[in-house]
Specification:
With 241 residues, the chain is of the alpha+beta class. Helix content is 16%, strand content 32%. The chain contains 4 helices and 17 strands. It has helices at 132-135, 161-173, 179-184, 224-239, and strands at residues 3-6, 9-13, 21-24, 46-49, 52-56, 67-73, 76-77, 92-93, 101-105, 113-116, 119-125, 142-148, 155-158, 193-199, 204-210, 215-216, 220-221. Strands 4-5-11-10-9-6 form a 6-stranded antiparallel sheet, with no helix packed on it. Strands 13-12-14-15-16-17 form a 6-stranded antiparallel sheet, with helices on one face. Helix 2 packs antiparallel against helix 4 (224-239). It is globular and about 55 Å long. The two termini are 31 Å apart. Mean pLDDT is 86; it is low at 5-33.
């Protein structure tokens, strides 16, 4: 298992290939600035632009997403250049080289997805987003939802068409919550389920869900309808085995 560091956040990459990840955000107190002996070179791929943090997309078929208009360039590469506690600034990237172009991703808002060079990045944290629908630009774009194995992320089942529509509608209504608080309150210690939202362009989003506390990534407290939908689909899956 390989662990990367990202801006006051620990991101544990799942799987032997290091592709696919579950975000576990831990609050830390940092001391920004000042000289240091050891420069950090273990940041996961990330970008800060217009006060929105983005991370590189894994476990998604992005072949049908193309670059749009160029909107900027990377101003500073952090890996190997900053001390512990450095606070990311707009235009900073952790791994992309200075001067790497930043582009719109056609079909998506800039606040949701961007290209950094040839790599697709997706929103990690947007302080202006109040709901999941404002965070994720996926309204009308979810084709189906698959349930995945916790161990290897292989597909183990599908939501029904009706459940996909109802779940997506409810999911986009949810208020964004700070996942660090959810984690620190111990709400992610129970049974966990993992599912994937497949979009119409064949790209996807991964969601982890803890039904006992009705919480999920990227940071939200589910409502009762969300819980009913998910548990009904899980019950259908388990009844077949």
């Amino acid at each position: 298992m390989k662990t990367w560091i990202i801006i006051g956040t620990v991101i544990t990459l799942l799987g032997s290939s290091g592709k696919g990840f579950e975000q576990v955000m831990l609050q830390t107190k940092v001391d920004d600035g000042g000289p240091c002996i050891n420069k950090i070179d273990e940041y996961a791929p990330a970008l800060l632009l217009n006060n929105i943090k983005y991370t590189k997309v894994y476990n998604s078929n992005n072949a049908h997403i193309s670059k749009g208009k160029k909107i900027g360039d990377v101003k500073f590469k952090m890996n190997g250049m900053v001390c512990p506690g450095y606070l990311m600034k707009n235009g900073d990237a952790t791994q992309a080289e200075k001067g790497t172009g930043i582009y719109q991703a056609k079909g998506y808002s800039e606040s949701f997805r961007l290209f950094v060079g040839e790599d697709l990045y997706e929103v990690f944290k947007n302080p202006r987003a109040k709901t999941i629908g404002e965070l994720f630009d996926i309204k009308g774009k979810v084709a189906y939802i698959s349930m995945r194995s916790i161990e290897d992320h292989s597909q183990i089942g599908l939501f029904s068409d009706d459940a996909t529509i109802r779940f997506t509608e409810e999911f986009l209504k949810l208020s964004v919550a700070d996942f660090r608080n959810i984690y620190n309150e111990g709400k992610t210690e129970g049974e966990k389920y993992f599912f994937r939202l497949h979009l119409t362009d064949q790209s996807s989003l991964d969601i982890s869900y803890w039904p006992e506390e009705n919480v999920m990534t990227p940071g939200a407290y589910g409502n009762e309808e969300i819980k009913r939908i998910v548990l009904s689909q899980i019950q259908k899956l388990t009844s077949r085995h």
